[in-house]
Amino acid sequence: MGYTVGYSTTNAASKLELTPLEKILRKIPSVKSLEVLSKICRNISQNPNEPKYRKLRLANKMIKANIVDVDNCIDFLTDEGIGFVEDNSDDEKKEKFLVLPASKKIKFTIVQSIEKAIDYREKEDENQQKQKAKIRKIGA
């Protein structure tokens, strides 16, 4: 006897559509990059009036390696609702910056979305490692 009336056997969360923000975050291939994005957004969220957190020097070694050189990170910061803009006002040094205008705020829900993307990426990476191990085992 099955009592299925009014109950769904599928996970309700699986039916939810990802937001554009979540879609771009899932395209970021590096856990480290997601962690750096989380730290940037967390710092701004917790200290919205602190200018040092709102300006990213793109030539900075950590920013370059984990944001500039990683697919979809700059898109996340600029195009997907975060609101960073390019700033070349320091023309003497010819350095490029991304700056979050004072009018833009980062809600903590964005940080939470990044944390969910980190969990997703870690699980995906783990599944890929398991698949590689199975293939090696079969080939041996």
Strand content: 5-15%
| DSSP helical segment count | 6
Rg (C-alpha, Å): 20 Å
Low-confidence segments: none
Helix content: 40-55%
Provide the spatial order of strands within the biggest beta sheet. 1-3-2
Elements, N to C (H/E): HHHEHHEEH
What is the terminal separation in angstroms? 47 Å
Q: Secondary-structure map with pairings?
A:
Elements: H1 12-15, H2 20-26, H3 31-46, E1 55-57, H4 61-68, H5 73-78, E2 85-87, E3 97-99, H6 108-139
Antiparallel strand pairs: 1-3, 2-3
Helix pairs in contact: 2-6, 3-4, 3-6
Explain what this protein looks like in three dimensions.
- The chain is mainly α.
- Helix content is 52%, strand content 6%.
- The chain is built from 6 helices and 3 strands, in the order H-H-H-E-H-H-E-E-H.
- It has a 3-stranded antiparallel beta sheet, with no helix packed on it.
- The mean pLDDT is 87.
Short description:
With about 140 residues, the chain is mainly alpha-helical. It has helices spanning about 10-15, 20-25, 30-45, 60-70, 75-80, 110-140; strands at about 55, 85, 95-100.
Identify the notable features of this structure and list them briefly.
52% helix; three-stranded antiparallel β-sheet; 3 strands; single chain; globular; 140 residues; mainly alpha
